[in-house]
Amino acid sequence: MCGIVGLFLKDKSLEPQLGTLLSEMLVTMTDRGPDSAGIAIYGADQNNLAKLTIQSPDPETDFAGLTDELRAAGISNASILPKSTHAVITVAADQIDATRKALGELRPNVRVMGTGSVMEIYKEVGLPKDVLERFKISDMSGTHGIGHTRMATESAVTTLGAHPFSTGLDQCLVHNGSLSNHNNLRRELSHQGIHMETENDSEVAAAYLTGEMDKGKNLGEALTSALDDLDGFFTFVVGTKSGFGVVRDPIACKPAVMAETDAYVAFGSEYRALVNLPGIEDARVWEPEPATVYFWEH
Amino acid sequence: MPVFDLATTELRALNASLHALDKNGENAEFEVINPRGAHAVAVGIDAPVDVHIKGSVGYYCAGMNETANITVHGHAGPGVAENMMSGKVVIKGDASQYAGATAHGGLLVIEGNASSRCGISMKGIDIVVKGNIGHMSAFMAQSGNLVVLGDAGDALGDSLYEARLFVRGKVKSLGADCIKKDMRPEHIELLGKLLSDAGITDVKPEEFTRYGSARQLYNFNIDNADAY
């Protein structure tokens, strides 16, 4: 099954509540997948700074002294904010690649969950309620975010196999479904130089969209290409720095409900996920059409 | 009239009360408030009762219904009135996929749109949709009537057996073995009755096109014996 949720705010006054609203939506979807949960939040842009969300199986050891060691390795402005098994490293915008390389040498067990100027990603094995609490997601503000609770099918129940997947700056994807041509696509994308961490089918979808957007397509155009090139079942919700997109495969077995008001666009695997949103009674509620791309941009 | 507030009452309490009704008793009346997209609301009823659900429901609302009249004042999730036997279910909003699937009887009225696979494998139910229906509707439908005032999506009536499909708008494409058929007087009469049962007075049966099975797909043909 899997449960997915997404919230794209149009009304800035709701931004302080993004984490709370998204958390409630995801917890409601717990029945759809108890294996792992994750969330991506798009926060405020900090001029000329970038963030790397990292994860470690042994955070106490790995995060200790990391700021100083990164600075000594030439990442002069690095600062690190640990949150349970994850940490957000803030660096100068042009030092993402250098930081990634330094991390690989200094802390080989640390995994980079996502990078970008505004996006942070948190995901772990466990129930949504526990995962969200662990990372204090309710306290986070932001412009948009997506979340996922997983019932694993195509790869193991691990932190790395949890969604959202991020394969490009400020890009992330959550998936309900299963792809059938992901092994071929993974090989093709690897040849194009796109890095993937796992054997997971959904990560391939994220990498595919990254590859298409690298060619100059916007999110809407990349999602349209996905309808031709991805084989299998999917409902995707995708975030970029300023955008939010939804697409379903032509058979559209995997459920999806959307709601839009003047204040937000919301997505849920089921209507239950949306019932606590402000003004939902008067929202336009609809089921996204099969093989149809929906996207919004700030 | 008993009122069940699903924000404060367990769904099971509602369904247990509905199941406890006497199937030979007087007609009862129930109201359900704050369904908040809950699954399996008012399923498995087997007694004369009017159930008014004030809000949107999740999966399988009114499933296996027998005798009861159930009205959803909101949208319905996947599988509404699945396997209904008799009675009437009215959805004031839209219905998600496989509305009325495998149902043997009764009347399902969807006042908004129905999405994909509406009436899949229907076995005798009458379904009236005031809006549009999605792709693969009436797939392998065996008997009953599907009436659509709007348009139908791709592959309407694929692998159809003996159900009758009446569409007033456009059909995006017909599925395998589904063909357009003549509207004979008995079909006009039948459709008139279905529209009237669904409370529709401003649409004439003559505005519809009938579709049904070409009866080629599932028949054994002796000339093809070598191929079997």
UniProtKB/TrEMBL annotation, chain A:
Gene3D superfamilies: Glutamine Phosphoribosylpyrophosphate, subunit 1, domain 1. Residues 2-298 form the Glutamine amidotransferase type-2 domain. It comes from the Bacteria. Pfam families: GATase_6. Keywords: Glutamine amidotransferase, Transferase. GO terms for molecular function: transferase activity. The keyword Transferase applies. PANTHER family: AMIDOPHOSPHORIBOSYLTRANSFERASE. This is Glutamine amidotransferase. It comes from Thalassospira profundimaris.
Automatic annotation (TrEMBL), chain B:
GO terms for molecular function: oxidoreductase activity. InterPro entries: Glu_synth_asu_C (IPR002489), Glu_synth_asu_C_sf (IPR036485), Glu_synth_lsu_3 (IPR012061). Residues 47-178 form the Glutamate synthase alpha subunit C-terminal domain. It holds the Pfam family GXGXG. Gene3D superfamilies: Glutamate synthase, alpha subunit, C-terminal domain. This is Protein GlxC.
